[in-house]
Amino acid sequence: MRMVDIIDKKRNGGELTKEEIQTFVDGVVSGEIPDYQTSAFLMATYFKDMTDAERSELTMAMMKSGDHLDLSSIPGMKVDKHSTGGVGDKTSIPLAPIVAALGIPVPMISGRGLGHTGGTLDKLEAIPGYQVEISEDAFIEQVKDKGLAIVGATGNIAPADKKIYALRDVTDTVDSIPLIASSIMSKKIASGTDALVIDVKTGAGAFMKTLDDSRELAKALVGIGKGVGMDCMAIISDMNQPLGNAIGNALEIKESIDLLKGEAPADITDLVLTLGSHMVVMSGKAKTLDEARAMCEKTITDGSALKKFGDMVEAQGGDRSVIDHPEIMPQAKYKIPLPAKASGVVSKVEADEMGIASMLLGGGRQKADDKLDYAVGIMMNKKVGDAVKEGDTLLTIYSNREDVEDIKKRLYDNIEISDSAEPFTLIHETVR
């Protein structure tokens, strides 16, 4: 069967068969289908969507395109977490060591940045020496020995997704429910984890802009997971403004370390503890979320989570001295304040535009082969609901170019100061 016929069928709204989906995935992996046809298929899927059956078939075909990790040699319930992506969303980095410090294995396969959102792997690579690409055997041994690992999908884990993932970013087909669901769940099913908590973002800085779309995505993800016997649930959290204060790779690593020291902003801390509480309950280590949250908090206060983070960094070739000396990561040449033009209350901070500004500074990719500048980004000094006086610093631009007038204009255009602000809700609901 010809790929052009499969593209034509999906473009015209037809439901693809299992065989047609398998042909597409096999062709992507073998390289027989060129990037331009893969891109055409992604765009057709973006506009015409997929049925539940198609979504499941695409997920399973992508999962079976490579190896299925056998984690049975790792004792205990293996619990993982995944986020659909946001601005300033560094939750995986402090979350994994918090949960692992409680004796719960966390085998985490993460991704790179897509569009205006940052990627966990990109952030970790800001740490000198940190290796995100390790062998499957090394991955399993590290989780057995240290209790956790955060790595990229190896060449043998869902290789179809690896190729499709990069093309989605540069063809503006990221915010598609079937493409997001199949990407996430193919990797998670192949990674062999027992239980999964999914953080589905909603709002301006998320791929799903409305609560209804986010709810549909959450249900699709949970449904696929439960369909293959995985214990799976989702939290829908807000991404109308950046999470935490730091946006940018090295800046977000420092904020993650601050969280593990008990010194991070309230919103990122609350979300990490909420996600961690669900992971602990799913592991069977606690019966209630309140009990689980207290256990997570203790790993911060007693320093065990911070030590676990250092163990992971060191095991993956990184310099654990980053814990006390974050300056060993790349540092921006210029730190440029953005002063408020009026007094009042911050009423809106458009998260996606903050992410785009960081990307334009060099902190994210506009093309698949772009090299990142780990030092650059934005540090929020004021968030929604904060009072400001004219001249107060709204945020600080970390840049390696002196002229950032284009960035300043974008930021001013997307931060509003009013007489008051609507109450901000961080966590909207759970989907089981």
Which structural traits does this protein have?
single chain; 432 residues; alpha/beta; 4-stranded mixed β-sheet; 4-stranded antiparallel β-sheet; 16 helices; 45% helix; 16% strand
Overview of this structure, please?
With about 425 residues, the protein is α/β, with parallel strands linked by helices. About 45% of the residues lie in helices and about 15% in strands. The strands form four sheets. It has a four-stranded mixed sheet with strand order 1-4-5-13, with helices on both faces. The protein has a four-stranded antiparallel sheet with strand order 6-9-11-7, with helices on both faces. The two termini are about 40 Å apart. The model has no long low-confidence stretch (mean pLDDT about 95).
Write the layout of secondary structure elements.
Layout: H1 3-11, H2 18-30, H3 35-48, H4 52-63, E1 79-83, H5 92-100, E2 106-110, H6 120-124, H7 136-146, E3 148-152, H8 159-170, H9 177-190, E4 195-202, H10 211-227, E5 231-238, E6 246-247, H11 249-260, H12 266-283, H13 289-301, H14 304-315, E7 334-339, E8 344-349, H15 351-363, E9 377-380, E10 387-388, E11 393-399, H16 405-413, E12 415-418, E13 427-431
Parallel strand pairs: 1-4, 2-3, 4-5
Antiparallel strand pairs: 5-13, 6-9, 7-11, 8-10, 8-12, 9-11
